[in-house]
Amino acid sequence: MAIRNSAKAVIFKDGKVLLTKNLDNEGAFYLFPGGGQEMGENLQDAVIRECIEEVGQQVEVGDLLFLREYIGRNHEYAEEDAHVHQVEFYFTCNLVNEFDAKIIPNHPDSHQIGIEWVPIEELLQYRIYPKEIKKFIINHYHGERSPVYLGDIN
């Protein structure tokens, strides 16, 4: 199986971060908007396209914030994800227009049931993947330095 690149958006506003809300057999979980890079597409264009698909909003892409690998066989869902190796690029992004909750995403992920602004100070209380990124997001929001390369984390 090939290594897959994924471009993700980290969108802050008023002490909150925008996440997609998803549902599986364990309940609700949250992800950063974004997804797979397509052949011939640069990472910035991928995150723009994915935000339109998943949150229905145009974004302006800023700096690369984090790079995370996910090697499925090394983590809690190894039985299902043994064949997965994904490299995720997390970019700071800003909404181009004022957020409009009435806009419905045109191509949400299969488990996606909505989008939600989650308070930064409450991130540790939410089931967010990757789990380890929560502390780095909180640190970044408070102006603390974090490594860019986070390694193979979940």
From TrEMBL:
Which InterPro entries does the entry mention? NUDIX_hydrolase-like_dom_sf, NUDIX_hydrolase_dom
Lineage: superkingdom: Bacteria
Extract the GO molecular function terms from the UniProt entry. hydrolase activity
Gene3D superfamilies xref list: Nucleoside Triphosphate Pyrophosphohydrolase
Provide the cofactor list for this protein.
Mg(2+)
Location of the Nudix hydrolase domain: 2-141
Keywords associated with the record: Hydrolase
The name on file for this protein is: ADP-ribose pyrophosphatase YjhB (NUDIX family)
Q: What is the lineage of its organism?
A: Bacteria, Bacillati, Bacillota, Bacilli, Bacillales
